[in-house]
Amino acid sequence: MAYVTVVLATITVDKLKLTSIASNNLYGWVGNVLLMIYYTAPLATLKTVISTRNADTIDPRLAIAGVLNGLFWLTYGIAIWDGYVAIPNGIGALLASISTSCWFAFRAKAA
Fold it and tell me: Is 14 exposed, middle or buried (0-12, 13-18, 19+ CB in 10 A)?
């Protein structure tokens, strides 16, 4: 899906003869939409986790990696003062923190 989206964006830039600023904005928006899909996908399981009070469907390594990834890119986005990088990754770090928190709250206790 991501590949098709980028190809369609490239065709759009070519056919509309967009300026470099407009094409950069288009690629930025496409990238951010794909990034939000990446960060929100693990949230689909949270309803089940909360209702069953069982976090077996959450991969803790993926959740923690999402938090770290979002925080690192947020820091970079702030350092270069780029909202296309900082804002979606800050939101992503927050969303991944929610998954991580649910895993900590509802994980199976060691016997």
Answer: exposed
**Residue ranges per structural domain of the chain:** 2-106
DSSP class of residue 108? P
pLDDT tens track for 7-44: 676 676 666 666 777 767 777 787 788 888 888 888 88
Backbone angles phi, psi at 64, to 5 degrees: -65, -40
- Cβ proximity of 100 and 63 under 8 Å: yes
Neighbours of 35 (CB within 10 A): 19
- Check: CB of residue 5 under 8 Å from CB of residue 30: yes
> What percent of the chain has a predicted confidence (pLDDT) above 90?
32
Higher pLDDT, 28 or 49: 49
Instruction: State which CATH number among 3.40.50.2300, 1.20.1280.290, 3.40.50.300, 2.102.10.10 fits the domain covering 2-106.
Output: 1.20.1280.290
